[in-house]
Amino acid sequence: MNRVYNFSAGPSMLPLPVLEKAAAELVNYGDAGMSVMEMSHRSPAYDVIIKKAEADFRKVMNIPDNYKVLFLQGGASTQFAAVPLNLMKTGKADYILSGQFSTKAYKEAQKYGDAKAVASSKEDNFTYIPETTRESFRPDADYVHICYNNTIYGTKFNYIPDTGDIPLVADMSSCIMSEPVDVTKFGVIYAGAQKNMAPAGLTVVIVREDLLGNARPETPSMLDWQLMAENDSMYNTPPCYAIYVAGLVYEWILELGGLEKMKEMNVKKAALLYDYLDSQDYYIAPVKKDSRSMMNATFVTGVEELDKKFAKEAEKAGLMNLKGHRSVGGMRASIYNAMPYEGVAALVDFMKKFAAENPKA
Question: What share of the chain is helix, strand, coil (3-state, %, to 5)?
């Protein structure tokens, strides 16, 4: 196979064993005589698939019994509206702005109530995670919202905000299942699956049961978490194939040794890249060290033309999708769970070669 190293921020790499198993089962799943793509979501065969996927996801994330798992559609961006529609009771919510997606979530919530930005790193181009204390939040806020890992800027929360009794809501789209996380510290966790879990089309919501049943009257049925929970994510046709692939990914992680092993692998990969970045002065890593993401590493040469050349030359070397987001520029290496250590090593080798062959004026 002539597979490249795909550093895309999403849709992103999937584990090769998962792809191979999905390929083997593509035309005929088990003894069903059909593909999972062709199955009725109400069929006994698919019922086994979705129930096992949820059970394995609960094992991977160590999700307590008093939390519901929802397999939904619409991407994490749809949850920007679903969160206030389901949780705003007093009409107040506090947001920590650490990048583009937390800002979009904040702006969406302003349509439904008094959403307040209580902390932000915008003034420094989101190169660090804002610090907060319990006193940062309004005592009558219905929830506090964060984006736990910022794909575009390459930052991640290095702490879990202390919100007291106020439910903490986290968008974990680009870091979910990259390391262990204490689910009980959060009221809601949601994630688009296309970065670290499955193909595009699936969104996962983990919600504490006591937070269900508060949807505003105007909430669309498809955004009502209580309704989705009561119907076991089957109120309408779910993203069946994406859920099936997610289930294969959960199996893969469990076979590797769970999230402790996943963290060990991810720390090693990130250290290889960041140690190189810190050892030289050709590339600049703009994110403050205590806010760096394990999943998305950003860097620039400081010369726009060299940045463009880097991305083009990297593609020729089989290192794909390293161009930074248009709002940031430079380069971004997304090194999610499925990226092997060898891929990061190949990237570092290329970075050294490119620096040697392209001196700055």
Answer: 40, 15, 45
Dihedral sign from CA coordinates of 217, 54, 208, 175: negative
- Strand ranges in 65-216 using DSSP code E only, listed in sequence order: 67-72, 92-97, 114-120, 144-147, 149-150, 155-156, 168-171, 188-192, 203-208
Beta bridge partners of residue 144, listed in sequence order:
94, 168
- For the chain, how many structural domains are there in total? 2
User: DSSP states of 181-214 as a string?
Assistant: --GGG-SEEEEETTTTTSSTT-EEEEEEGGG-S-
Cα(18)–Cα(353) distance, integer angstroms:
33
Residues 193 and 246: their CA atoms lie apart, in Å, by 8
How is residue 244 written in tokens?
């099936």
CA 350, CA 335: separation in Å to the nearest integer?
Answer: 16
From 255, 281, 311, give the residue that closes a domain: 255
User: Looking at the structure, do residues 234 and 85 belong to the same domain, yes or no?
Assistant: yes
DSSP 8-state code for residue 284: B
Same domain, 236 and 263: no
The distance from CA 279 to its chain's CA centroid, rounded to whole angstroms, is 29
Q: What pTM was estimated for this model as a whole?
A: 0.97
- For the stretch 298-357, pLDDT in tens is 999 999 999 999 999 999 999 999 999 887 889 999 999 999 999 999 999 999 999 999
Identify the CA nearest to 317 among candidates 297, 346, 358.
346
How far is residue 206's CA from residue 64's CA, in Å, rounded to a whole number? 10
**4 inside domain:** no
At 255 the three-state DSSP class reads helix
